[in-house]
Amino acid sequence: MRPPGVHLREITDDNRDAVRALRVRRDQKQFVASVSKSLKQAARHPEANPWYRAVYLGDEPVGFVMLSWKPPAGPYEGRHFIWRLLVDKRHQRRGIGRETLTQIAALVRADGATELLTSYDPGDGEPWPFYRKFGFEPTGDIDDGEIVLRLTFPAQ
């Protein structure tokens, strides 16, 4: 199922408050930081080369995605790493997260990448089933207690 109208938009003064108001379910808070915290982390860590967008369904912000886009140094040097992905609790289970990942994967692949990385904190209600269904596989690495996953792109 592909929800029509899902697209990524830059976060500006006009939409920042609405995007910051997005919330995950209470049982998901241990796995994903808020948009406000994410934006603060991005500002504090410019060396990670943060790239972030609001996820929209039509004209309504429904999610947020942030990547470390080919940082010049560090453990993910030159690679694309999904740092944050969230869909507001009112819009979950509608294919928005999957469509967002599809669009991110296409952007990263168009940038010449052969893989897309992310990580998750294991626990009851963890996002691993979501990422597994999309095609991510564990790399065998652990980063700050999180299990690192890889989506490999087939050769073009």
From TrEMBL:
Residues 6-154 form the N-acetyltransferase domain. Keywords: Acyltransferase, Transferase. The keyword tRNA processing does not apply. InterPro entries: Acyl_CoA_acyltransferase, Bact_Acetyltransf, GNAT_dom, Sper_AcTfrase_N. Transmembrane segments: none annotated. The keyword Transcription regulation does not apply. It holds the Pfam family Acetyltransf_1. PROSITE patterns: GNAT (PS51186). This is N-acetyltransferase.
